[in-house]
Amino acid sequence: MSSPLSLSVKRLGQILRDGAEAQVGESESRLGAASETYWPLIRTLLVTDFKPESAHYTAKKIFGTDTANFAAVDGSEDQKLLGGLAVFWAGSYACTGKVAYHKDQLPSVSYDTGFVEKSEGLASCVPIYVDMISEVDPQTQLSPTGNQSISSTITEQQTVDNSTIANWIMLFSELYLAYKLAKSREYQIILLDYQTKQSLVYDLQEPFRWLIDLTVMKAFESRGLDVPDFYFTGDDYRYRFDVEAKTRFLNLLREQFNSGVKYKGRRLKWDTVIEQKTLELSQFLIGRSREINFAEPSPSLERSDNLNIRRRIISLTQKEAAERGIGKTTLYYLQKKAKMEKPFATYKTVEARLT
């Protein structure tokens, strides 16, 4: 005869198994849908071998010639502690040359002679007192490996080592030098070793970035997120938020992506719209479609709790509310919410009676 404990354990195991199977099934369906959506695009863009003839044709198409001038930009940085003074130095340098594309052989590269005399460079040196570094670079008060503040025990050398001042000087010098070289129109190819941009795949996020921005605003307005939920990490110099706050934000984000919008005569969720736009983009890139439109569907960002609505609710008397078909209890809660800073929603019928 089975004991109550063994039955409970068996039931719990079955629940966990069913949940795991459901998750696996959902992941399988999502991966299948993603494969069907992205494969037409990826299959066209992937290059598995190098063809000199294709490279020659592309160069002629882009540059107008089979020879292109290039400039390769790189930077370096250093920092030293001299007594109570920290010295940050950084700069960038560019070497130049030409790339010749041939129809029947690999491209050939030649470098300009007189490297020291003709190459471009940019550098800067910033001396600053150690006790003033935290005013310019606040993360220096954090430990090199954690996120807790140890300003009472951190040494001068750790303050200098934690600082990113030299790194930012180097980054700015690299980007500015690359900008100067590109502006001169003498060079068709600019090479940078610093990753300044994510993959082009991320460009598809731009038309829908407002979904994230709107969710962030709603999260702070509703107190779903607050400043104490964030902390700064000294190892990669990024702001992060704790697990509980992340869960609250993901729930708000899920609600936003599940909100509906009218598109092509149907009401779709925004995550479905993004999937549809990905398919349309892939069809456009492989030539199966002649146009691509990211302007539609356009979001409606009108609030149901704007300032005019709030003022109207607060100034509404019970007599006026009764004439408009709004009950006492509804009026009480509406006026209570209208006086608070948090956003609130009103039913369409009530909103129509308020206007």
Explained architecture:
The protein has 355 residues and is an alpha+beta fold. It contains 13 helices and 9 strands. Strands 1, 2, 3, 4 and 5 form a 5-stranded mixed beta sheet that branches. The longest helix has 42 residues, at 4-45. The termini are far apart.
Summarize the structure.
With 355 residues, the protein is α+β, with helices and mostly antiparallel strands. The protein has helices spanning 4-45, 52-63, 115-118, 133-136, 156-162, 165-183, 209-221, 243-258, 270-285, 307-315, 318-323, 328-338, 348-354; strands at 67-82, 85-100, 108-111, 120-129, 189-192, 230-233, 238-241, 260-263, 266-269.
Shape estimate:
extended
Strand content: 15-25%
Helix-strand category? alpha+beta
What is the string of SSEs from the N terminus onward?
Answer: HHEEEHEHHHEHEEHEEHHHHH
Query: End-to-end distance, in Å?
Result: 69 Å
Unreliable parts = 143-152
Q: What is the number of independent domains? A: 4
The number of helical runs is: 13
Beta-strand segment tally:
9
Q: In percent, how helical is the residue content?
A: 40-55%
- Whole-number mean pLDDT: 76
Largest sheet: 5 strands, mixed
Radius of gyration, CA atoms, in whole angstroms: 30 Å
SSE map:
Elements: H1 4-45, H2 52-63, E1 67-82, E2 85-100, E3 108-111, H3 115-118, E4 120-129, H4 133-136, H5 156-162, H6 165-183, E5 189-192, H7 209-221, E6 230-233, E7 238-241, H8 243-258, E8 260-263, E9 266-269, H9 270-285, H10 307-315, H11 318-323, H12 328-338, H13 348-354
Parallel strand pairs: 1-5
Antiparallel strand pairs: 1-2, 2-3, 2-4, 6-7, 8-9
Helix pairs in contact: 1-9, 7-8, 10-12
